[in-house]
Description:
Elements: H1 42-48, H2 51-65, E1 71-73, H3 74-77, H4 92-97, E2 103-109, E3 114-121, H5 123-138, H6 140-152, E4 158-160, H7 161-171, H8 177-180, E5 189-193, E6 199-203, H9 214-217, H10 224-228, H11 246-256, H12 275-291, E7 296-298, H13 318-321, E8 326-329, E9 336-339, E10 343-344, E11 347-348, H14 353-373, E12 391-393, E13 422-423
Antiparallel strand pairs: 1-3, 2-3, 2-12, 3-13, 4-6, 5-6, 7-9, 8-9, 10-11
InterPro entries: PORR_domain, PORR_fam
GO molecular function: RNA binding
Protein name: PORR domain-containing protein
Amino acid sequence: xxxxxxxxxxxxxxxxxxxxxxxxxxxxxxxxxxxxxxxxxxxxxxxxxxxxxxxxxxxxxxxxxxxxxxxxxxxxxxxxxxxxxxxxxxxxxxxxxxxxxxxxxxxxxxxxxxxxxxxxxxxxxxxxxxxxxxxxxxxxxxxxxxxxxxxxxxxxxxxxxxxxxxxxxxxxxxxxxxxxxxxxxxxxxxxxxxxxxxxxxxxxxxxxxxxxxxxxxxxxxxxxxxxxxxxxxxxxxxxxxxxxxxxxxxxxxxxxxxxxxxxxxxxxxxxxxxxxxxxxxxxxxxxxxxxxxxxxxxxxxxxxxxxxxxxxxxxxxxxxxxxxxxxxxxxxxxxxxxxxxxxxxxxxxxxxxxxxxxxxxxxxxxxxxxxxxxxxxxxxxxxxxxxxxxxxxxxxxxxxxxxxxxxxxxxxxxxxxxxxxxxxxx
Length: 426
């Protein structure tokens, strides 16, 4: 169980830290002088486990859903590899074959007599994808508001599409959000070429009704005095079993009482060396995480936000300096930052409908991965030589495996060392 509170309203568990001798609360003091240690949170790590494979699989589902007959050869799918976030050592075909409940493999001869693996969606996966499209349609206004608020956080209401692409999974945007969303709201968004020759997205109008942060919406949790002084406090929680030293607790209590600057307000007047500025940076990310549907983002995906959000150098250090607000998971060889207050152990408190769809995809993947490991998806394909363009079907099925897997020896193409096409023996 984890405790969430505003200072004076709950029980404290946390981290140890040390303060420089002669510390004075009235001085301009930064948490850079506080030594914090990373503490593993197994519950939040479990939230991240399998996220990489799930995201890659869902992106492949979106790509295949727009293809003729929902089927594409491996060399076409490989063109999208950079958008999948898979490790370089993992062959794309190996990854796809792990999940036979999602992807069905077939083969085709091209005009040169070369055998090419093709992949298509299983009926179960296609049906779930159509359900996802229905959820997106039903929640379109919510998705538009999230994108508007993201652009309103920036100085000029502009972001490069490259930066938005890195956040679209977290925001719940459709894979092809430009065609399926942006073009339908020409009154809100405009595409144009940036000075560095990239394409950017601009919000055309400011909406005051959206410029209210989640922390400001939670005013019912704040004291009357804090509201009067605009000293809004962030919900704080720590992993059970780690004590918080008295001096560090006192500093954090004082930091919570500092003035809160809305992430939608101009903060150019703030001295970046002060704790008030630090609190503003925390507030920006607190709001950004609330714009995501699962309240988590890979750390590397916010690296391009420094200039658009008017942040100082090394701004992502706030994740390490405020472990009571953010947790950094190191699962899957990457760092994923989670907003602590959004979770009760492994359960997300406010569930977006898209989360249910993703969990059903993950369940399908786990089932297929287990079944395939048990040998239930051995292939018995027959290759036709008369028609060099004939697609030959194998065993249809699906699957999820949120762990690594080595192809079994009885896999039809386990000996192939490339995602490229192969020559069929005569």
